[in-house]
Amino acid sequence: MESEKPSFEPFRLFSSSGSGFLEQSEPPLPPPPPCVEVLPSEILPSVKYAVEPVQLGGLTLLKGRVSTQEVFTLSNSDLVPGKYEGGLKLWEGSLDLVKALSSEVQNGHLSFTGKRVLELGCGHGLPGIFACLKGAAAIHFQDFNAEVLQCLTIPNVNSNVPSFQPPALQVTKCDAGTEIRFFAGNWREIHKLLPYVQNIEKDFNVSTGKSLDAQYDIILMAETVYSISALPHLYELIKKCITPSHGVVYMAAKKHYFGVGGGTRRFLSIVEKDGVLASSMVAEVADGSSNVREVWKLSFK
């Protein structure tokens, strides 16, 4: 029997009605939605949520499927910068990241036990859910759209957490007592809401290394580096959020997002120029289904 393949959407640069070519320069974006914390009780029951298993090697996670048309009145192939950033689709990089994290844990290179974890641009939230399953003390999910959290991320977490788990589905259980919270907003402003963030100018000095070490221990992100204009804001947010003494960032994305100019190498050029973080490749995926995908690890030098 042929093994079941995970259901995901490949990166689409254009909507179904797009004309084709997109230049490197990006058009001005509309004002972003406000930054808010989304409570687990704020699920939108009017949106149809269908759950299905995703097989990732020896690990089974549960994911939802919802209609972009129903949530945002957009066709299912649309990604509208500044309005909807594709959070309802399951991207390849999310699966790559979970597999890489699983390998890192098995090899003894990574432990989530007792750690504070932040998943940026979470969408389905599978990497953050994996962190919960592996004993994270706190996992905070961030997405651009509150609707993504309400219709997909929170239901996905509920489907994988024991107290909300349907009895007929067998999945790995999340440790009880994990602090799970959800935050919506753009990367320029979201640090004002996130609990484990310091004022980098006030509380952290790169030259002395002095810090209260109260930030996140691990930051996870998949398919977040496709937009050139967003890369500097993402990088500055990471530096505000990550604990200087031992924090690590795991990033999964395509090497290049052709047509828009983003990608892992474009982001890593910003990292290298700044000179504060060191980077190392964890995995490379070249399976022919898309352009080359990579998983990278970042940490303070």
UniProtKB/TrEMBL annotation:
The keyword Methyltransferase applies. GO terms for molecular function: protein methyltransferase activity; protein-L-histidine N-tele-methyltransferase activity. It comes from the Eukaryota. Residues 13-26 have a biased composition (Low complexity). InterPro entries: Methyltransf_16 (IPR019410), SAM-dependent_MTases_sf (IPR029063). Coiled coil: none annotated. GO terms for biological process: methylation; regulation of translation. Keywords: Cytoplasm, Methyltransferase, Nucleus, S-adenosyl-L-methionine, Transferase. Residues 1-30 are annotated as: Disordered. Its EC number is 2.1.1.85. One of its GO terms (cellular component) is cytoplasm. It is found in: Cytoplasm; Nucleus. PANTHER family: HEPATOCELLULAR CARCINOMA-ASSOCIATED ANTIGEN, HISTIDINE PROTEIN METHYLTRANSFERASE 1 HOMOLOG. Belongs to the methyltransferase superfamily. METTL18 family. This is protein-histidine N-methyltransferase. It comes from Prunus persica (Peach).
